[in-house]
Amino acid sequence: TRVAQPLAQPGSSGAQAADASLLARAGLPPTTTPYDNYKFAPIREAEVSRAMTRRYFNDMDEFAESDVVIVGAGSAGLACAYELGKVAPHLKVALMEQSVAPGGGAWLGGQLFSAMVVRKPAHLMLDELEVPYEDEGHYVVVRHAALLTSTLMSHVLKNPNVKLFNATAVEDLIIKPDVQLGGARRVAGVVTNWSLVAQAHGTQSCMDPNVIEAGVVVSACGHDGPFGATSVKRLARLGMVPGGEVPGMGALDMEVAEGAIVGGTREVVPGMVLCGMELAEVDGSPRMGPTFGAMIVSGRRAAHVALAVLEK
Ligand code: AHZ
Question: Which residues does this entry mark as bearing 2,3-didehydroalanine (Cys) (predicted)?
């Protein structure tokens, strides 16, 4: 039986005393916890360095050709990675996140509030993840948005075929003419840079990027803002946005917005699937504000759209 260890109490002989009383209360035999003379196994500094860098550079080598590149690890991008892990765990998925911390806006429910609202039936994902919620009839409330996000992330990152490149920004797209499409252009991968490098382009003369080839790119960068809608903005500059212009997301209408995002999740140009709020930029559909069901369902749908693209 494992018993949670309480913090050492002031005036006691540290964790040992606290543990002893806890074990007694739990009706378990006393034991000693060796915190006072705690001894770590030996290590050398170079070993630590190599343990990290070897894996990172092996991953860069391995994922230079990925089946799926997901741009943005917010709620939509994570839901896409989760679904891919479920239905096609053998695929190599590179998850690109410009922030150190993945999760995007999903650490909070809205403004700076901890609770997150999920409209039914998107709450079925919470059942699947065993994330508890309060049922309010047409919607559910997760007490801590962070619990949903961290649970989703833990599922995603346990898949050995997923590599999260955090603090890595997608700066551009690889676009190539495709013979199968009669020479029409398709998205064939992404151009990346460590985010700190990407932020310093204005101060250095030459900091060239890296590249990842992909069978399909799923962009989930969120709506326009300092970091959002990267892929949509680039497609627009290249004259590849369907309809020729980016209307930008519409004003808030919760009732309409979520259905529009899920319904619109698709391959917007050959080789690129859009999901989550980035899609509203192209479709001009309304924003939904702080309700997250559509992000989850759109991300999951994007996984299936991406699989269909790979199978073409
Ligand atoms: O850091 C961004 C965030 O984690 C990341 N990202 C953006 N540009 C990137 C780039 N390279 C790598 N060039 C990039 N990563 O993408 C993630 C987007 O997450 P998000 O939470 O902003 O978007 P989402 O579509 O998953 O969820 C949107 C949540 C919103 S916004 C909204 C409203 O404003 O009304 N309502 C909801 C539910």
Answer: 206
